[in-house]
Amino acid sequence: MNNSTLRFDVILMPTERWMVWDDHHEAPATFGGEILSGLHHEAAARLADILNKVYPRTTG
Q1: No. of helices (H) and no. of strands (E), the chain
Q2: Is the per-residue pLDDT at 10 higher than 70?
Q3: Each residue of 12-58: pLDDT tens digit?
Q4: Could you tell me whether strands 30-31 and 27-28 are parallel, antiparallel, or unpaired per DSSP bridges?
Q5: 1 occurs within a structural domain
Q6: Residue 48 contacts by C-beta under 8 Å, 6 or more apart in sequence?
Q7: How far apart (Å, rounded) are the C-alpha atoms in residues 37 and 5?
Q8: Domain hosting residue 12, numbered range
Q9: Phi-psi bin for 16: left (phi > 0), alpha (psi -120 to 50), beta?
Q10: 2 pLDDT exceeds 90?
Q11: Distance CA 10, CA 45 (A)
Q12: Is residue 59 part of a domain?
């Protein structure tokens, strides 16, 4: 959530697992009907990278 140019970011949850955050919707990201949380850091980071390429930040 620190990088204003990216729509998706990864956040460490209290469970020590990671979540992909959708800054546009201000909620956990979903893909294929699944909430992208409870992930290992590497998986969350890869998913966020893919989602940022497919769904870039929109303005307005």
Answers
A1: 1, 5
A2: yes
A3: 999 999 999 999 999 999 999 999 999 999 999 999 999 999 998 87
A4: unpaired
A5: no
A6: 6, 8, 9, 10, 20, 29
A7: 22
A8: 8-54
A9: left
A10: no
A11: 6
A12: no
pLDDT band at residue 5, thresholds of 50, 70 and 90? confident
Domain count along the chain: 1
- Look at residue 56 in the predicted model and tell me its pLDDT: 87
Residue 2 belongs to some domain of the structure: no
Pairing outcome for strands 27-28 and 18-22: antiparallel
SS (H, E, C) 10-30: EEECCCCCEEEEECCCCEECE
Residue 3 lies in a domain: no
